[in-house]
Design goal:
270 residues, alpha/beta, Rossmann fold, 2 domains, six-stranded parallel sheet, 44% helix
């Protein structure tokens, strides 16, 4: 079989296969570079709809887009679970598992989830689950259609894997996340906007400037400037901080930046 025939055969074998993550062209970079967000999802359920919209809203959230790791092509049947995927999870600051009805039928989704939950325990990794048209209780107790999707493949898996997956599903079901059917009466566009805002908020500290913890003599100046900034105006305003060297002008400017940075999207921060 020549190279072209092998490629077509592999593409055919992956149609409808399980999902979770090879690098998107927009997320590629040097190996070892960090990602902002790792998307974990069942491709056949949400790849072309909800997760696609979520991905594009994340990468367009400001003039400096989030670096998002998602799958473009499913893992070929028979291929080993790649270390590249596990590395991507480890190097990401936030994971968003989109847990849908057939999620638990994919061993790749479940293996990623196990690694995501391990990273949450061992590092500052943030996990923001979305329960897409499934109830967290069904995920926790493997009930309903979600449970059926898991049990249908039970006999194919090792007992050790099954126990790890059950534990990860149980743990993620208790995390604060979103139920798509309950958020804003099921309006998915509003849910996606809220998820993007939450991601921006969680990553806000990346843009905080370092200032000394013990500050003296800046409170009055800071209060005056913040009161002026908070006063209503239809015009753009500029703040000038001047004075002799060593009185804390740069420190004051950093504090003002930190207090105001959460009022702006990521793309407005310099």
């Amino acid at each position: 079989m020549d190279k072209e025939q092998r490629k077509r055969a592999e593409e055919k074998s992956t149609r409808g296969a399980s999902s979770s993550s090879s690098i998107s062209p927009k997320a590629t970079g040097l190996r070892g570079s960090p990602y902002d967000v790792f998307l974990n999802f069942r491709g056949s359920d949400t790849r072309k709809a909800f997760t696609d919209h979520l991905y594009h809203n994340l990468v367009k959230a400001g003039t400096v887009p989030f670096c998002v790791f998602r799958d473009e092509n499913s893992i070929p049947i028979g291929e080993e679970f790649g270390s590249e995927i596990l590395d991507a999870i480890k190097r990401s600051k936030i994971s968003i598992p989109v847990i849908s009805e057939n999620y638990a039928s994919s061993k790749w989704c479940l293996r990623e989830l196990v690694h995501i939950m391990e990273c949450k325990k061992s590092t500052s990794h943030i996990v923001l689950p979305i329960f897409y048209k499934v109830a967290p209780s069904d995920v926790r107790h493997l009930k309903g259609n979600f449970g059926n999707a898991f049990h249908l493949r039970w006999e194919r898996y090792d007992e050790k894997d099954i126990q790890e997956w059950q534990r990860a599903l149980n743990e993620v079901s208790y995390l604060h996340g979103w139920e798509s059917d309950k958020f804003e009466d099921g309006h998915e566009g509003e849910l996606i906007e809220h998820v993007v805002e939450t991601v921006q908020s969680e990553l806000q500290e990346d843009f905080q400037l370092n200032v000394p913890k013990q500050l003296v003599g800046l409170d009055d100046g800071l209060k005056k400037i913040m009161n002026w900034i908070d006063s209503p105006s239809i015009n753009a305003r500029m703040i000038g901080i001047y004075g002799m060297g060593g009185i804390g002008k740069t420190t004051l400017a950093k504090i003002i930046h930190n207090q105001l940075s959460n009022k702006f999207g990521r793309g407005h921060q310099k």
